[in-house]
Amino acid sequence: MGAPEHITDTDITDALTALPDITAAEVAGALGIGRSTAAKRLARLEAAGTIRRNRGGRSGGARVADRWSLATPAPETRQSEGATSEEPAATSSEAASPSEPDPSDPGTGAGERSETAGDASGRLAPGALGALVREYLAARPGQSFGPSGIGKALGRSAGAVSNALSAMATAGEVQLVAERPRRYRIAR
Asked: What is the pTM of this model?
């Protein structure tokens, strides 16, 4: 584990200069570090405004890797790029406030914004899934849903949603309205 410590931020930006628009896995391979280490270092540089993330989105239900490149320093360049230049600026501010999930992340609906609420690997920040589930149910008062239906709508695992719903039911935020199959609705 001593190898990643000798890799500097300059090494990472040099790699992005040599190989623009590359994935975290490609950065890791080029620098001889682990993918998770590369993802964390890239996220830190993104938050500092040094680099930008181009979200990969989803293709056929599978997540497409994000691509990384150097940030454009001149404001004139960002203006000439149009609406796409605003996305990287929004993602860096979203990464700084993980309590508010981002709707521009890959996937559909609330599931998209949740991925930006966590780290570069797409993991959610603690409590973010519960907030997404709460928002989903609150937008549909009087209706009941199972964990798999909510999971599909949010682009999240049914097991993780089930765990969040159980915790929320214990806290009184949602009501268990049917045991088999389990169905929940927002508490009134």
From this structure: 0.39
